[in-house]
Model the fold of this input.
Amino acid sequence: MRAEILRVYKSVHTWTGIVSGMALFIAFYAGALTVFKEPLARWASPPAQQAAVPLAQAQDLIVRTLRAEPAAARDFTLHLHDAENLPGRLSWQVRDPGADDHDGRHLRHFVATLDAEGRVAAQPVAPTQLGDFIDVLHRVVGLPVDNDPNRWLMGVVSALYALALVSGVVVLLPSLVKDFFALRVGRNLKRLWLDAHNVVGIVSLPFHLVMALTAVVFAFHDGIYALQDRLLHEGRLAGAFQRPAASAGAAPRDPATMRAPAELLAAVRAIAPSFVPTALQYQQAAGPRAIVRVWGQDESAVAPRARGGFVAVDPYSARIVNHDSLPGHQSAANQLISSFFALHMASFAGDPVKWLYFVLGLAGAWLFYSGNLLWIESRRKRGAEPPRRTRWMAAGTIGVCLGSVCGISATIAAAKWLPGLVADVAAGHRALYYAVFFAAIGWAFWRGSARGSVQLLWAAVVLTAAIPASSLLGVLAPGLGPWPPASAAALGVDLTAAVGAALLAWMAVATGRRVRHGPAPSVWAAPAAGTLSGTGR
Done:
């Protein structure tokens, strides 16, 4: 390949990576944690104050709740399993008028239970929003709100990401055979980092291509559907996914005549024995088009959503209405669409794939971090002070990347303290994350990239270690507020955080050694005493 063509691709790879790298670091770091969104929610939820209504009384609970709270008939959920993050057997949500469908800040949550005399008791609840907040950071590259403009920005970033991947492969092609897996360990740290950057990039290339392309589709899916509707379906696309309209004048139905949940589950079990139901979502339960989505998991098949798949059942006849979203029972076209969701959300093959995605997500974050650091290092000229723009780029990379790590660890660790300190826990999570995030950026510019990187890494160690420390405090001093883990999933969060803190400590020690003994002048070497040029102090 001609040298000038390679130079063009190298420039494309460098600048698309530089422009999108910091945003993608946040997306990948938060995305790796989002794979275990449910365990995070269980860790952040206090033990239930009262036992859930037994499943044998579920039908009675549904009927009494709908009589007391008719508005709940529009959409409510019957949970089949008990977990710390599920506030009760039956719950529903009310979205504020005009709120974005993806924005969970405008949802009010309610739960219903039966008291000792069998009377229904409905009350508002505030389930943890920790997992949802980290998911929002992942979906809109660190921005606070999941709305259309922010998703479009994520789509642009993802398009740049795809361009960086393709151009990077083209640049590496001439030396791919020679350099692949050539991890040259020695005194030349820049060469070692470049080798590691290339190996991680090539080995995880299929994963990154899937992430880039699906993220673009997710970001612009509303527009894609609208265009498809206009060009192919003549405005009738929405009707293809809905049940036939009820006949004019159809009378409301009495929920007391619905089949019991056990009958609905038996109907599903008859067509999908390996499908494990987790929840029954009733929609328009008192209307002529009542439907129940039986949600669940089937690890032997691809699920169309992160929470699994579902089969639609008529609650008044227990007849299977639709199984287009039932894992293992989809048409070829629906299976193809579900595969895109599953490949992005790791909703197939159970926990082994989730752990694989967790590792690949963290490796992806490191890929963008190392890419920026390599570009900064390439600006260094022997014996010359780094220019101000290089120092700012280095400080910005350190501040944004390590700031997001510190902010996420801080807001997770605070989950067991905020309920006793603030009225709006979800707002407390957001405020704490952004306070730590912007403080880290300010610190990196004030202290300079060299000293700031070491200090922010140690801050990340302390904040990440605070996650299991909060649980340990719940064991040793339960009166202080935090609570101990109540399940293996919650304990897994503590153990993973402890391992993460140890790895961050190793990085802090190694980075400190580089700052003290690395070649100078450099943005990664501590400036000599009294030197206050650029952003280094």
